[in-house]
Design goal:
mainly alpha, 434 Repressor (Amino-terminal Domain), 2 domains, 6 helices, 77% helix, 0% strand
Length: 106
């Protein structure tokens, strides 16, 4: 992989990591790599294989086109934000249900 391309992919992966509000360690674990390898990639010093980038694309719900080329994903970004909000609300509802269930069980 050409150095400039490695740097650009690293920048986009950094944006994805930040959008997910993850530390390097959390993101590395999430995508199945080491923190050291991720750091190299984020700095553009090394690259992931195409198969690894495809895996990251699927896992993060960011199109491979975005990871490779930076092609705009505005529509997908909005959907990701909505899904994140819904997941948060779902977690809150589940927590409240657990509290109610434990109250009823007493």
């Amino acid at each position: 992989m050409e150095n400039n391309l490695k740097k650009e992919i690293g920048k986009r992966l950094e944006k994805i990591k930040r959008a997910k509000n993850m530390t390097n360690a959390e993101f590395a674990n999430y995508i199945g790599t080491t923190q050291q390898q991720l750091s190299y990639v984020l700095r553009g010093e090394r690259g992931f294989s195409v198969s690894k980038l495809l895996e990251i694309s699927k896992k993060t719900n960011y199109p491979i086109e975005y990871i490779l080329t930076g092609k705009s994903v505005d529509i997908n970004e909005e959907l990701r934000k909505k899904i994140k909000e819904l997941k948060k609300k779902n977690e809150e509802i589940a927590k409240r249900l657990d509290e109610l269930n434990s109250y009823i069980a007493k």
